[in-house]
Design a protein that fits this description.
The chain is α+β, with helices and mostly antiparallel strands and 151 residues long. The protein has a single domain, classed as Sandwich (Immunoglobulin-like). The chain is 15% helix and 36% strand. The protein is built from two helices and nine strands. Strand 2 and strand 3 form a beta hairpin. The radius of gyration is 18 Å and the shape is globular.
Length: 151
């Protein structure tokens, strides 16, 4: 009986610790040390590294990005500029896609494990306020990557 109670305690502790998430800024010192503006890892295993963020005007921003498929999920993954979404910083609205697909040098491609893609992504922002950039297959399952400062 004692053994069963002990096992239940261990299982409940493991389950409780497994569901907690780390703070969003926990990677900030590591990212700054590597000279990046931001980084994220998607549930599919794609690693996004944002090298630079530049606000071109009140309605445009440019991201210089690198996408890497480390092979954690051993199937090819589709990446591209249509996977970038933005939402006003500090808001709880669902992010929307505002990428200028024809002007972005990053094109939609399929990455096999251990491949990478680099390029620039141009964003057409609705207003001059600060925005948060997300990356993922859909806005609902995207991960926060980097902030675009307000103009």
């Amino acid at each position: 009986m004692r053994r069963i109670v002990g096992m239940l305690c261990v299982i409940s502790l493991l389950a409780g610790c497994g569901t907690t998430s780390k703070p969003a800024n926990m990677d900030a010192p590591r990212v700054a040390k590597k000279g990046l503006a931001g980084s994220a890892r998607t549930p599919e295993g794609i690693i996004l590294r944002v090298k630079t963020v530049e606000r071109l005007s009140d309605s445009q921003a440019k991201l210089n990005v690198e996408l890497f498929h480390p092979g954690a999920v051993p199937i090819p993954q589709i990446v591209g500029p249509s996977n970038f979404f933005v939402a006003p910083q500090g808001s709880s609205v669902v992010p929307t896609m505002v990428t200028e697909l024809e002007k972005s040098s990053l094109k939609k491609i399929t990455l096999a494990p251990r491949e990478e893609a680099t390029g620039e992504v141009l964003l057409k922002l609705p207003t001059a306020e600060a925005y948060q950039v997300y990356y993922g297959a859909t806005p609902e399952v995207s991960v926060r990557a980097v902030a675009v400062p307000g103009k």
